[in-house]
């Protein structure tokens, strides 16, 4: 039986928060280095597919409480972003496609999704971005995630305007909230990318 991490929060005698934080950082660093240094070509695929098989529970226990602008926080949010995309590839691709139509920046190109962007293209993009955490330039993977979030945020905001015009208040509020969350994620991913380029993402 899977028990959510929140079920353990009220239990006395748990780990000191400082120890939990150290474990989060140490495990994230060890995992990334191990995968990057491995000669096993299937290891990256297994890591990317880990949450498909086991869910996000284990990663949440390790990394979810870490700062958004840290290595474990970035890995957690990349995994979470991929899981959310895979849960709703059609809805996510609609946000991204709309964002690509209204956003006058290079974010669509940086994100790297094929155009037009449908459910399959958005699933491929999610896998590619998470791959980048373990192979290639991690900063580029984080920048792609930031660009994806900025584009999808713009799409959600534009669709929220449409819902406002159609007097669909519930849909407008939902999309506005989603746009805000995506914009915040974009800022965090971009900040992590800058830290990674300076060699100080830990």
UniProtKB/TrEMBL annotation:
<keyword id="KW-0804">Transcription</keyword>
<dbReference type="GO" id="GO:0000428">
    <property type="term" value="C:DNA-directed RNA polymerase complex"/>
</dbReference>
<keyword id="KW-0240">DNA-directed RNA polymerase</keyword>
<protein>
    <submittedName>
        <fullName>DNA-directed RNA polymerase subunit beta</fullName>
    </submittedName>
</protein>
């Amino acid at each position: 039986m899977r028990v959510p991490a929140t079920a353990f929060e009220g239990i006395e005698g748990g780990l000191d928060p400082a120890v939990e934080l150290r474990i989060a950082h140490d495990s994230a660093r060890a995992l990334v280095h191990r995968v990057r240094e491995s000669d096993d070509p299937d290891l990256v695929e297994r890591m990317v597919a880990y949450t498909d098989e086991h869910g996000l529970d284990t990663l949440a226990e390790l990394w979810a409480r870490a700062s958004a602008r840290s290595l474990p926080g970035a890995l957690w949010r990349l995994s979470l972003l991929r899981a959310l995309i895979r849960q709703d590839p059609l809805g996510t691709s609609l946000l991204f496609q709309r964002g690509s139509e209204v956003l006058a920046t290079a974010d669509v190109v940086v994100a790297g999704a094929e155009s037009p962007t449908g459910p399959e293209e958005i699933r491929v993009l999610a896998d590619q971005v998470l791959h980048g955490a373990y192979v290639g330039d991690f900063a580029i993977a984080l920048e792609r995630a930031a660009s994806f979030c900025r584009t999808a945020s713009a799409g959600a905001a534009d669709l929220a305007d449409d819902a406002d015009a159609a007097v669909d208040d519930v849909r407008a509020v939902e999309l506005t909230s989603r746009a805000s969350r995506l914009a915040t994620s974009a800022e965090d991913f971009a900040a992590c990318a800058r830290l990674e380029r300076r060699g100080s993402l830990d």
